[in-house]
Amino acid sequence: MEKNNIEKEINFFNGKTNLQEDNKIILVTGGAGFIGSNFIRHLINKYPNFKVINFDKLTYSGNLNNLTTLEDNNNYVFVKGNVSDPKDVKTTFEQFNPDFVVHFAAESHVDKSIINPNIFLETNVLGTQIMLNYSREYKVQKFVQISTDEVYGSIQENCNVGEEGSLAPNNPYAASKASADLLLRVAYQTYGQRVNIVRACNNFGPYQFPEKFIPIIITNALQNKEIPVYGNGINVREWIHVEDHCRAIDTIMQDGKSGEIYNVGTGNKWRNIDLVEHILQKLDLKNDLISYVLDRQGHDIRYSVDSSKIRKQLNWEPQIDFETGLEQVISWYKNHLDWIEEINSGEYAAYFKEIYKPRMMDTD
Ligand code: NAD
Ligand code: DAU
Fold this sequence. Notes:
Blueprint: H1 5-14, E1 25-29, H2 34-46, E2 51-56, E3 76-80, H3 86-96, E4 100-103, H4 110-115, H5 118-137, E5 142-148, H6 172-191, E6 195-200, E7 202-204, H7 213-222, E8 227-230, E9 236-241, H8 242-255, E10 260-264, E11 269-271, H9 272-282, E12 290-293, H10 308-314, H11 322-335, H12 337-344, H13 347-356
Parallel strand pairs: 1-2, 1-4, 2-3, 4-5, 5-6, 6-10, 7-9, 8-12
Antiparallel strand pairs: 9-11
Helix pairs in contact: 2-8, 3-5, 5-6
The structure holds nicotinamide-adenine-dinucleotide (NAD) and 2'deoxy-thymidine-5'-diphospho-alpha-D-glucose.
C-alpha cells in the first residue's frame, strides 16, 4: 500500500481530488461505530480499487461485528488505535500513507457527555488536532471532519440554520464538536490544509448503538420494555437515513470546495413523542410502553438545518424516504436480536440503569 510521496505532493498542490483514480487510500477513523461502519461498506461497495483503513479504539460503541462481511476483503484493513495518542496515529500514517482522512471517531452521546465531559474533550478535540497534525505532515489530499448540526444549538420554530449560523452549543458533546470545527478552520486558514466540515442532522439506520433514541424505541419495544421519553416529549429532531448521510460525505469528499462547511439534512422533522407513537403503531403495539422520564439537562428544543447548499452546489439529495427507511431499520433490528443481546449483556445494561433509574418520575 506504500505510495510515492512525490506523486502525493503534486496532487496536494494541484488540489486534485479525483477519486475515480485507482488505488486511493482512505483512512476512516471511528469506522467500527454506527455511521463509520456504514460509510466503510459504502466505500468498499462503490469503489473496488480503494483501500480502506479503519482506525478505531473500540470503545463501548465500537463493534467489529458491524463489519463482519468485510473481514476477508483485501481492500479493508482494521487498525486498533486511539486518535488522542500521537504514537498510534503516527504509526498508522507511516504504515499506510493515506490520501484522504474521514474523521468520524468521537464520543458521540450527549447524555454521557453531561455525566463525564472530560473524555469528550480528549477524544473529540485533542484527537481531532492530532489527526490534523499528521494529515498535514503526510500531505493528505483532504481531511473530512464529521461534525454535527448540534454545534448550532437549539433552533427557533419556523427557522432553519444555514452554514453561516453561529456556533451555540448547549452541552459538552456539542461544545467539543464545535471546538473541533474551529480547529478545522485553523488547519485551513493557517496551514492551508484542504478540509471540509459535514454537519448532519440525526441519523438512524442499521448498526446504531441502542443508547440513541430510535434504536431505544425499537429495541425496547421488541423486548416489551418501557420506552423512556425525556421531559414532555415535544423536542424536535430532523432525521436522515445513515446511507443518505454516507452518500453526502462521499460527495463532499470528492467535490466539496476546500474550506467549506456543508449542512446535510432532509427536512423530515418529528416531535419525539410523535415519533415514538408512530413507531409503536408500525410495530402494532400500544402507547402504554411509553414512560415519561426526567428531562435531559440543557435539552435542545429543536434542530433544523438548511441543507440547500449541498443540494444546489453538489447536487446531493436524500434518496431514502423516511417510512421506507424506518421499516428497513425495524426489520434490521428484528433480524439482529443476537446483536442487541450481545450489547445488552455487556456494560450497556449497567449504563442503562445508571442513566435511567434516577430519571424515572416515580422513583423515590
Ligand atoms: P458511534 O459512537 O456509534 O461511533 C464512534 C466510533 O468512534 C466508535 O467505533 C468508537 O470506538 C470510536 N472511537 C471513540 N473514541 C475513539 C478514539 N479515541 N480513537 C479511535 N476511535 C474512537 O458514533 P456515530 O453515531 O457513528 O457518530 C460518528 C460521528 O458522526 C461522530 O463524530 C458524531 O459526532 C457524528 N454525528 C453523528 C450523528 C448521529 O446522529 N449519530 C449525527 C451527526 C454527526
Ligand atoms: O443532531 C445530530 C446529533 O444527533 C449527533 O451529533 C449526536 O451524536 C447524536 O447522538 C444525536 O444527538 P441527540 O441528542 O439529538 O440524539 P439522541 O438519540 O440522544 O436523542 C434524540 C432525542 O430523543 C432528543 O431530543 C432526546 C430524546 N431522547 C433520547 C433518548 C436516548 C428521549 O426522549 N429518550 C431517550 O431515551
